[in-house]
Amino acid sequence: MDIKVEDRAASDADAAAAIKEAILNKLIYSVGKSLEAASSHDWFVATAFVARDRIVERWLASIDEVNRTGRKQVYYLSVEFLIGRLLFDALTNMEMVEPTRAALFALGVDLDELREVEPDAALGNGGLGRLAACFMESLATLSIAAFGYGIRYDHGLFRQRIKDGRQLEYPEEWLAFGNPWEFQRPEVDYEIGFGGRIEAEHQPDGTVKHVWLPGETVEAVAYDTPIAGWRGAHINTLRLWSARAPDPLRLDKFNSGDHVGALMDQVRAESISKVLYPGDTTPAGQELRLRQEFFFASASLQDLVLRHLRQHGGILSLADKVAIQLNDTHPAIAVAELMRILVDLHDVPWRDAWAITQATFGYTNHTLLPEALETWPVPLMERLLPRHMQIIYLINAIHLDQASKLADSTGERLAAISLIDEAHGRRVRMGHLAFLGSHKVNGVSRLHSDLLKVTVFRELDAVLPGRITNKTNGVTFRRWLKEANPGLTSLLTEVVGDRLLDDARLLEKVAAVAGDAAFQERYAAERRANKVALAKLVRHRLGIKIDPDALFDVQIKRIHEYKRQILNILETIAVYDMIRAQPMRDWIPRVKIFSGKAAASYATAKLIIQLANDVAKIVNADPTVRGILKVVFLPNYNVSLAERIIPAADLSEQISTAGMEASGTGNMKLALNGALTIGTLDGANVEIREKVGADNIFIFGLTAEEVEAHRHRGIDGSDAINRSAKLAEVLEAIASGVFSPDEPDRYRGLVDILIHHDYFMVTADFESYYEAQRAVFRRWRDKRSWWRAAALNTAHMGWFSSDRTIAEYAKDIWDVPVKPPGRG
């Protein structure tokens, strides 16, 4: 052993010994357990506390540096932060994984078992929240001073169970045993108002000052979680707000015997931070959602304005020192709230306040679905936020007055760009408010950003050209490569070098060895090990045995008609029918893996989940199939489950109706880990194809332009069905109850939609999708060709790092410097 290796080994041993002692101290003095009495959860908490201590030291140093230099800060407002488990994230970014593993091993504890003990933070639904989590990590990695602001949901998104094929929703008890990563800040407490009245005070100079006197107040209490960047170079804060009643108990009512009524104010207040996305099909549900959004937007703005005043003295410099990014329309009410703070509380003239507001805000749009661009009934807004409606009316009046002076102004255009939609019962368009109140509006893939200009924001872009820009999404490779797939990461590091996770662009070096037989053998071996692990998980959770040598065909995402899980199911049934009809053919073993949640009130999406499970039940039990085809639906999709599925996937299903998926990030994670994509030219699939090459991706179906033209001609699916005997047979089988013998008509309505109202082009794309799947089979038979394509996917995914995305935001929208990781 040479001296350097010996020194390194001694250093590692010292680090492990120090961590071992620290874990024991935390177990005894913070958890309050002896070694003999400690449970797995106790060991997890003790280990988390040790990692947190190391983070906190650098966190405080990062805060001190930002305060000392007075540099500009970024504030990321998002109703979701799908951060998942944090133990391995913290240990990885603080470069503590191996010494911690050794320390725990010496104590008779397995670090990987502790990983499974930690609950997933239930703070998000899907891509929007996971993107926010990746962005928080990259903000810290690039040493950008930043805060994430959101809501500390008691239960977050529901826990999904499947019973008799049906989705059932239960509260997600992620906080049942506390959260070792957060710090409660009871001193950081803001009053959030609702309702009430507005008084006009006439000032000596002849102006009128408006004073909002809320009829109800709720307290927002802060909980801080430090977010470590790669190598711990910088630590940022995720600040989540929890709702509390100012007076949690009406003592007079309690003493009079009304014990339930005494707690009503507390229940009403705390409902705000109880559950992510409460059902909004009722007026009460709509009101709760609006209360949630204003609650966290107002608390966040009050907090950042107070911080700015403490650091810089005056409010007029806000836009020079603060950049606020609105993650979709959920925080859009912040535009009106910042105007209220500036005009009403700090006496900034309207024109100056509007200039500051626009210069401060940026808005990220995540959808082209008109129904997903939030609107709120005007009566609800006027009752709940009366002063904000006044401000919105005035913003709109000035905006329409300026637009009416343009040469091509028409009544139709003014109606289209108005903040108030008069055609559907008078509703406030929150996407329009975010657009007007921001200096930049970005889509999240090149195609999506281009479509924004010709669809949902066509008229606004014509009136305010140049505001829409593009920032294609990215994912953090520390989480989705190193943590999720350590074996493959080790192999890639041998080729690329130790700086792989500092600079994802270095992955390009893998292309040079993609065709090398020895590399392919090791690459395939790492992938197979992941498939074996996933097969064990499926067997444990579902009792279904799957073959790790089969093609793992994966579709994991929120269940929605435009994401077209139904198209995948139709092809599955078609193949099932062919296997039974032609058993002599040399079939490729394939496992169809589905996972995802449907919104609790989305009946059609829940029916699709049931169909997937019903098909799985029939196919998996059919002896004539001989295990050649298996169908699996894994319940309760979350970050941790994704970390198990993605490294094991062979084929990545990205099959949304072209023009409807804004970007996708699952497509990036899967391709990074070596899955080949089958998909439409939608969202970031377009850019993925450009990077990995058309020969290394399976593209099918109508383009966005063709989808639009097809819809103009009609959305009846009969012609496509008549042209495809396979599709007709599959739909007839579903409609007649082949897969639901206990309730033959269960799916007749679903089939009727595809026949008569196929808005999402399922029937139009079926044959193209079916043929693309046959191309997948042909490639899978040629293993050298398959593994070369898989390696090239990994090699060319470096551009899709969230570090790149955040660097673009920093340069083009926020005007803040970045410090690349691993340098200086």
UniProtKB/TrEMBL annotation:
Keywords, in A-Z order: Carbohydrate metabolism, Glycosyltransferase, Pyridoxal phosphate, Transferase
Source organism, top-level taxon: Bacteria
Catalytic reaction list: [(1->4)-alpha-D-glucosyl](n) + phosphate = [(1->4)-alpha-D-glucosyl](n-1) + alpha-D-glucose 1-phosphate
Keyword hit for Transferase: yes
EC number: 2.4.1.1
Entry keyword annotation includes Glycosyltransferase: yes
Cofactor: pyridoxal 5'-phosphate
Pfam families: Phosphorylase (PF00343)
UniProt-listed InterPro entries: Glycg_phsphrylas, Glyco_trans_35, Pyridoxal_P_attach_site
GO MF: 1,4-alpha-oligoglucan phosphorylase activity
Function: Allosteric enzyme that catalyzes the rate-limiting step in glycogen catabolism, the phosphorolytic cleavage of glycogen to produce glucose-1-phosphate, and plays a central role in maintaining cellular and organismal glucose homeostasis.
Family: Belongs to the glycogen phosphorylase family.
NCBIfam families cross-referenced by the UniProt entry: P_ylase
Protein name: Alpha-1,4 glucan phosphorylase
UniProt lineage: Bacteria, Pseudomonadati, Pseudomonadota, Alphaproteobacteria, Hyphomicrobiales
